[in-house]
Design goal:
The protein has about 400 residues and is mainly beta. The protein has one helix spanning about 1-20; strands at about 25-35, 45-50, 55-60, 60-65, 75, 85-90, 95-100, 105-110, 115-120, 135-140, 140-145, 155-160, 165-170, 175-180, 185-190, 195-200, 205-210, 220-225, 230, 240, 250, 260-265, 270-275, 280, 290-295, 295-300, 305-310, 315, 320, 330-335, 340-345, 350-355, 360-365, 370-375, 390-395. It contains 1 helix and 35 strands.
């Protein structure tokens, strides 16, 4: 009888050892902190300036500046009078912004001064149309803007030193834009024309790369210096890389519960906020991607810009918002989905949107609860601007 019981116990143990572990077996509690932003606002993108100063865009007409080391922060509101669309950083104390109308400008956090322009030129039929400004990018005194929904001005080049603005006319609905060498890249969300556009800022040539993934206005375009990265943020939830030198696109298909929104790159890995109320990290070196080649289609061999002068702009003081700093400790559950994907939980009702990486932390904006969240990433090496992605690929 004893031998029988022993045999049964051994059999049960062996049987249990053959049962596969659930996919979400590896879990760990991670410390985080969160702090309140303006309760009636709408926290959106997060941006990192040189020196790791953080800027948070609140679309309800406010921009926050955060010291990433101390956690101290301040904001200015009453910037345009409309909902803000996007910001781009000039330095650790000045950002440029657009709203959803024809206005754009800068905000100086040292003085609290706003300087703005409206795209409107008297007695000029071309510039009499109303712009629908969207994403922008600043570099070396030049501001590039794009319409989020428009057919009048397309891409706009504004010289901040003399007020000259030039329009590269093409119908676009840009979700995001960035500069890479002498090219301006844009994610175009127009119906039946989800595509990556490339404008040669020297020759004016416009090229289109069409793809199957569906993207929306929240789509976020990033670069590591060689590859472009974005997410399919409407239905499938894939993360996509694109090599502009070779035309090779690589699609990383994530599990059904992972649906990336905004991206941030660090040390060869892709951090992202998730539509389902979490955030995650993809390691392309551990994930099998599917490659294809996107063939460029020349839309216009060259675009002769139409230029005008908007003058010196108008200035006025913004209103300071300097709340009491009260960071609260919270925790997240990290789930190792597989070797390539980590998923981090957030409190109930969280709606994570923006994400950015500094030397020590991951930063998240939570539009659902109007919170700013930070999580230490001490277990990872600091960012390497020269990091090379070595993804596994299949064709």
């Amino acid at each position: 009888m004893r031998n029988y019981k022993f045999t049964v116990i051994i059999f049960i143990l062996l049987s249990l050892s053959l049962i596969p572990l659930p996919a979400f077996a590896n879990r760990e509690t991670i410390p985080m902190q969160e702090v309140d932003l303006y309760s009636l606002g709408s926290a959106a993108g997060i941006y990192v300036a040189p020196g790791d100063t953080i800027f948070v865009l609140d679309q309800a007409d406010e921009i926050w500046q955060v010291d990433s080391e101390t956690g101290n922060y301040q904001g200015f509101f009453g910037i345009s009078g409309y909902d803000l669309y996007d910001i781009s950083i000039e330095n650790e104390n000045r950002v440029w912004w657009t709203d959803y109308s024809q206005m754009f400008g800068s905000l100086d956090f040292t003085s609290g001064q706003v300087k703005y322009w409206e795209i409107m030129v008297e007695n000029d039929d071309y510039w009499a149309n109303m712009a629908q400004l969207g994403p922008l990018v600043y570099e070396d005194g030049i501001l590039w803007l794009s319409e989020w929904q428009g057919q009048y001005f397309g891409f706009l080049r504004f010289d901040t030193s003399n007020g000259q603005i030039c329009s590269y006319k093409v119908p676009v609905s840009s979700a995001d834009i960035l500069l890479n060498e002498n090219y301006l890249f844009a994610l175009d969300t127009k119906l039946d024309l989800d595509a990556l556009l490339r404008l040669d800022i020297l020759s004016g040539q416009l090229v289109k790369y069409s793809f199957d993934e569906q993207i929306g206005l929240d789509a976020n375009l990033q670069t590591d210096g060689s590859l472009l990265w974005w997410s399919e943020d409407v239905e499938g939830g894939d993360i996509i890389s694109f090599d502009p030198m070779t035309g090779v696109r690589t699609v990383y298909d994530l599990p059904a519960d992972q649906h990336p929104r905004h991206l941030s790159l660090r040390g060869g890995k892709i951090w992202y906020t998730n539509v389902n109320g979490t955030f995650g990290r993809l390691d392309p070196a551990e994930k099998v991607g599917v490659t294809s080649t996107l063939n460029p289609v020349i839309i216009k061999s060259s675009i002769d810009p139409i230029c005008a002068n908007l003058g010196a702009g108008e200035t006025f003081p913004a209103s300071l918002d300097a709340p009491v700093i009260d960071w609260a400790d919270i925790t997240s559950t990290r789930t190792d989905i597989d070797a390539s994907i980590l998923s981090y939980s957030l409190p109930e009702d969280a709606v994570p949107f923006g994400i950015a990486i500094t030397q020590a932390d991951v930063w998240l904006s939570d539009a659902g609860r109007q919170k700013l969240i930070r999580m230490p990433i001490e277990d990872e090496p600091p960012p390497d601007d020269n990091a090379i992605f070595l993804p596994l690929i299949i064709k």
